[in-house]
Design goal:
The chain is built from nine helices and eleven strands. The chain is α/β, with parallel strands linked by helices and about 260 residues long. Strands 1, 2, 3, 4, 5, 6, 7, 8, 9, 10 and 11 form an eleven-stranded mixed β-sheet that branches. It is globular, with a radius of gyration of 17 Å.
Length: about 260
């Protein structure tokens, strides 16, 4: 396997409760040729203090501080533009990678010659307890399919910045990660590949958007209307397609990991 550098982008905002687990999961990766760009969005808790403790012993961890609170999209884009790696990966400040995540994914991408890759992932609750559920990755994901609903768990996604360039997203407060993967597939001209093995843990939080169906609809509409530039009518039609896909098709990708 070619020893390419992977840039990891992590926006941070008041994440003191979770950031140590997230950082440890990166440091403990079996693949070591990475840099981590943490973008703090004016946290008012101890997040920065915790991060600085890790930076002392890990020179490949870098902290960027926003002067004003700008949101995840701006923070993530800042990290992308500063990234030096051949590949770009994302991990939010409350999620966790399994130790072989980067190694397995990079090896797969190089063997399959794919530009965009993601994987299945498992669900944990706010306290880190396993919920015995996983979200299965589609083996192959086209732009057309991705346009219907976001099938890429952002904590598992990697794209090849060496071939695609730096893919950023419009400044939307929510769901901007979906636009990154849509833009990446458009730039690639090839489908994304999904690794079936779960390589990460996604934390379900009480205040998360995924737990609020109204916000999910509101922000998804903005993806179509603002992020992708559809007309009001066009965005409405896309939302109808999204509703069907999300609740009747994509929902089947979440399965129990313990048999009854």
């Amino acid at each position: 396997m070619v020893k390419s550098t992977i840039s990891i982008i992590t926006p941070v905002y008041n994440s003191e409760k979770f950031i140590e687990n997230t950082l440890n999961s990166i440091i403990n990766q079996t693949y070591k040729n990475w840099e981590l760009l943490l973008i703090d969005d004016c946290s008012s808790d101890q997040s920065v203090t915790i991060i600085n403790h890790y930076i002392k012993d890990n020179p490949n961890i870098k902290l960027i501080k926003n002067t004003i609170n700008e949101g995840a999209a701006v923070s993530r884009n800042k990290g992308i533009m500063m990234a030096q790696g051949d590949y770009i990966a994302f991990l939010d400040a409350d999620d966790i990678w399994k130790p072989e995540k980067l190694e397995k994914q990079l090896e797969y991408m190089q063997k399959q010659n794919c530009d965009v890759c993601f994987s299945s992932y498992e669900l944990i609750d706010e306290e880190g307890n396993k919920l015995n559920k996983k979200v299965k990755a589609l083996p192959v994901l086209s732009y057309k399919k991705l346009l219907k609903s976001n099938y890429v768990g952002n904590l598992t996604g990697i794209y090849n910045a060496k071939t695609l360039g730096k893919i950023t997203s419009p400044n939307l407060r929510k769901r901007q990660d979906w636009l990154i993967w849509l833009n990446a597939l458009k730039a690639s001209g090839k489908p994304a590949h999904g690794i079936q093995e779960p390589l990460a843990y996604y934390r379900i939080r009480e205040d998360s958007m995924s737990s609020n169906k109204f916000n999910l609809l509101k922000y998804n509409y903005r993806v179509y209307k603002i992020g992708l530039g559809y007309s009001t009518f066009g965005a409405f039609i896309k939302m109808l397609i999204f509703l069907k896909e999300h609740f009747f098709v994509k929902s089947k990708q979440t399965v129990n990991t313990i048999s009854k």
